[in-house]
Amino acid sequence: MAARRLGSRFGMARSDKMFEFSVMAVAGLTLALVWLLVAKMILDAQQSISGFGVGFVTGDTWDPNRDVYGALPFIFGTLVTSAIAILVGVPVSIGIAIYLSELAPPWIREPLSFVVELLAAVPSVIYGLWAMYALRPVMVDSIEPVFVALFGWTPLFDGQPVGLDKFVAGVILAIMIIPTVASVSKEAMRAVPDSQREAALSLGATRSETTRMAVLSYARSGIFGASILGLGRAVGETMAVTMTIGNANMISSSLLDPGQTMASLIANNWGEAQGLQLSALIEIGVVLFIVALIVNVLARLSIGRFMKAVPTTGGGL
Amino acid sequence: MNRYAYRKLKDRAASGLALACVVAALVPLVYILAEVVRVGAPAINWEFLTSRTKGTGEPGEGIGNAILGTLLLVGYASLIGLPVGLLTGVYVSEYGNNRFGTTVRFFNDVLANFPSIVIGLLAYALVVDMLNVGFSLIAGSFALAIIMIPIVANTTEEALRLVPNSLREGALALGVPRWKTVMKVMLANARAGIVTGALLSIARIAGETAPLLLTAFYSNYWSASATEPIASLPLTIFRNYNSPSDVLLHQAWGAALVLILMVLTLNIGVRLFMMKRNRKPKVVKKTWKTRLSLRA
């Protein structure tokens, strides 16, 4: 305040104020524009929202010929593939985070983190291409038959492996969320004060016991947030899923059957959609938007609170 | 086996398991790169890189217009995204210690992690629907710019945070106005970090596919017009990947190779350059926030 008053006496306040105002305007206008577009998107979906009401999320028919649209199969597909991604991807990511934060020799941590994060740099359409021609044969020949042999009696693995199904889509999603979940979890683990580790070690705990008692339990809300972020990524991921899930608008309990997610439905039908169908697709986008918003805000709050709660340590990265 | 040996064994097993997780993540990465090079490389030659993409049944093959399209999309997106992102970062870092600043920061974080297909829908709502331009280069660039803004804002903010406060105080003590301090002293000293963030954000948007599918659409012809649909490398892959025709498959794998080379060169190049220049790799202090926004 004092500086501002002093400034105005020397005639500097005006240019400073103008500069501050302009950068604030740029920052604010961007946000305003994005939210305006959200409103416009909801407006575009209005035709479908008022036409189908709540029935939109419970209806299981998607038929452009009769102009009847229900999103249940796609909500189902999104839930199933995201669940596989979390079940497979999160444990692996936590393992990576533990290695990078607790076990790896110091000289290898930075380069190895970078390499793991390179997984995030690969465009999702290339994941899809690779999944189609490299992962799919592996899944069909060696992985899916094992699951069929072990769990074929459950409805989950009922049928013949074809390789364009919810299982493959879930596995590719699991690979894609690894860099996000691993690096945020690692960050949370690095934030655990060394005094916690020292306390466990001085009680005679082994390294793995220290990790479990001192690090994982201390950083659990950060790791939880990281997993939620991974979930957000899996829910919204489009291209790799579209290319592997088989694109069939159906609800089937078997993971070996094709399906469709909300995002892949939009990608598949966007080109030819018009009128009510376009509006219905945009409504699916609105649902996706709301899910992503909730997931992200939740993740950010839980990680943000965790990061703020821990005292900054001198060591670490 | 006594209790001590059992605990020791368990410790070894847990460490082994953690290492196995790292290997499990590296296998797909190496496999993807190897596969794209193995299948993509034979398709590449000068003619292939400079002819337009062909549809089913057309003679010849190429990805030239898709390379041009990606460069144009990224270029136009940078024209909007870089300055807006930079100024947003400046605001949040230098003037953002208030409620509005916190709000901007929070929503930028949320936006940075939004599904890109939803961003495509937002861009569609404005350019294609409201402004009535139709599927076009400008719509695609706008979508990519929205993705870019929060990334650039976040990395700029982090880079400015790393500038020692004494520099700011020194400039202000000399009577330099605050805006000049920001523009000449702060930005100059944060330059390396800002450039890193900008280049990585370019690498990120170059591979985006879903938003382009909804906004720029595709064209098999040469085009640089802002209001016409335009080809891009990611969509060349998507439109051709499932084709029974060898020509179209060549185009998909060739495009994948060119795209991944662009993205990895930017990622690795930026990192090596910064390591050499500063003798320490962390120009942008990698917090969980910047790590996130830099993913593809």
Descriptive overview:
The complex is a heterodimer of chains A (317) and B (296). Chain A has 317 residues and is an all-alpha fold. Chain A has a single domain, classed as Orthogonal Bundle (MetI-like fold), CATH 1.10.3720.10. Chain A is 75% helix and 1% strand. Chain A is built from 14 helices and two strands. A two-stranded antiparallel sheet of chain A has the order 1-2. In chain A, helix 3 crosses helix 14 (275-309) and helix 8 (166-190) runs antiparallel to helix 11 (220-236). The radius of gyration of chain A is 24 Å and the shape is globular. The two termini of chain A are 37 Å apart. Chain B has one domain: Orthogonal Bundle (MetI-like fold), CATH 1.10.3720.10. Chain B starts with a helix and ends with a helix. The radius of gyration of chain B is 23 Å and the shape is globular. With 296 residues, chain B is an all-alpha fold. Chain B has helices spanning 3-40, 46-50, 64-95, 99-112, 116-130, 137-162, 165-173, 178-189, 191-206, 210-215, 233-240, 246-278, 288-293. Chains A and B meet through helix 2, helix 5, helix 6, helix 7 and helix 8 of A and helix 1, helix 3, helix 4, helix 5 and helix 6 of B.
Keywords for this structure?
heterodimer; A: 317 residues; mainly alpha; MetI-like fold; two-stranded antiparallel sheet; 2 strands; globular; disordered C terminus; B: 296 residues; 13 helices
Give the structure's gist in a few sentences.
Chain A has 317 residues and is mainly alpha-helical.
